[in-house]
Amino acid sequence: MTDTLSTSPNAGLAHIRATATDKLTEKSVLVRSLERFHVSTRYDKLLTLEIEKMLTTILSGGAKEGYALAVVGKSGAGKTHAINHALDGHAAFKPFMVGVNELQICMRVRTPPVCSTKSLGVAILQHVGYPLLRTKLNEIEIWRLVREQLKRREIRIIYLDEAQHVLKAKKSVTEVTDTIKSLMQDPTWPVWVIMSGIPQMLEIIEGDGDHQLERRSRVLRIGDLKEEDFPTIVAIVKAIASRVSFKVGFPMNTEFVGRMVHGGMSLQGMVIQLIKLSIETAIWDEKEAKTRTVRFDHFVEGYRRLCNCGDDTNVFLAKDWRNIVREVSDEGKLTEELARR
Q1: Could you tell me where the DSSP H helices lie in 37-159?
Q2: Cα-Cα-Cα-Cα dihedral of 192, 180, 158, 114, to 10°?
Q3: Quick one: 260 and 323 in the same domain?
Q4: Total number of domains constituting the chain
Q5: Contact yes or no for 183/158 (Cβ under 8 A)
Q6: Which residues of the chain, if any, have pLDDT below 50?
Q7: With contact defined as beta carbons under 8 Å apart, do 127 and 109 qualify?
């Protein structure tokens, strides 16, 4: 039986817009603005500097081989968001037209969960839209196609997110490392690589037997938040609230900020996520619809939404909040259960 259904891919969204109340539409605008708001930190400047150094090397035209930029930090530190923001904000990474083809100099690939040489090559080909036939291709053929496609599509930089996945395929770590090196050393089309992942990801670089990858890599570490960052955190809360025309209606003293940073596991990305969830809670609070004020209890609810906890293990309510420690998953989310000590 032939499927004759023909609709616009955005027909459902158009239906929701047509039936939404004014209040729902207004909240939608606020939530979208909240999600898109990027908080600049000292790591953004360092990251932009490293990316511009990479572009300068490519622009020189004399580089015979590429190198790797490794951005490491714990899950929830905000690595992926920071890299994507830096790439999205730079003119060099905007799409450009060659004839009727839209191209980009950088390709972003999420490393396969169990990353072998073959699965990484397949992921790259799928990302560029290369039609993989059902016939089986061996690794040599796959990577011949990868190199061919990178050159044809003018791709000079590959961003590999969650690169620590390479370590899960223990038998092929060396093979993947050698393959990445060969991309950077290709005399006809050298490629530069950006990798992001948890600190263990550095084992990929440091475990290279002949240390060639280590010599061809620069490392940027995103560290934990410290008490000296508290004034910056207060400024961030006010800036995010102001983004949606809200104000903070209670004093953000040292203990409050300490609870917030501890609740976010001292991770930059996690703390910002907590702040946004709390302000989103305020947006949905009908009592504050007119005053547009963020209250302390909105942060209580924001943390509850972050980890689905009870009052007894909520860092904003518990007296022994310093003893409340959760784990962060590979996806950068807080666990519901407390970490085992």
Answers
A1: 42-60, 79-89, 117-127, 139-152
A2: -160
A3: yes
A4: 2
A5: yes
A6: 1
A7: yes
Q: Give the residue among 82, 57, 75, 81 at the shortest CA–CA distance from 67.
A: 57
Per-residue model confidence (pLDDT) at position 173: 84
At residue 169, the pLDDT reads 74
Question: Which pLDDT does position 160 carry in this prediction?
Answer: 96
The CA distance from 238 to 246, in Å, is 8
Buried b (16+ CB within 10 A) or exposed e, 208-244: beeeebbebbebbebeebeeebbeebbebbeebbebb
Q: Of 193, 221, 249, at which residue does a domain stop?
A: 221
Residues 85, 38 contacting (CB under 8 angstroms): yes
How many Cα atoms within 13 Å fall on the side-chain side of residue 29?
9
* Strand (E) or helix (H) holding 68: strand 68-72
> What's the token pair of residue 201?
């990801």
User: What does 234-251 look like in DSSP terms, one character per residue?
Assistant: HHHHHHHHHHTT-EE-S-
> Can you tell me the distance from the alpha carbon of 79 to that of 292, in angstroms, rounded to the nearest whole number?
31
Locate tokens 């000079």: which residue? 156
List, for residues 10-32, the tens digit of each pLDDT value.
Answer: 888 888 888 888 888 888 999 99
Of 221, 256, 278, the one marking the end of a domain is: 221
CA dist., res. 121 & res. 332, Å (int):
26
Whole-number pLDDT of residue 1: 47
Which SS3 state, helix, strand or coil, does residue 275 take? helix
Is 28 within the bounds of a domain? no
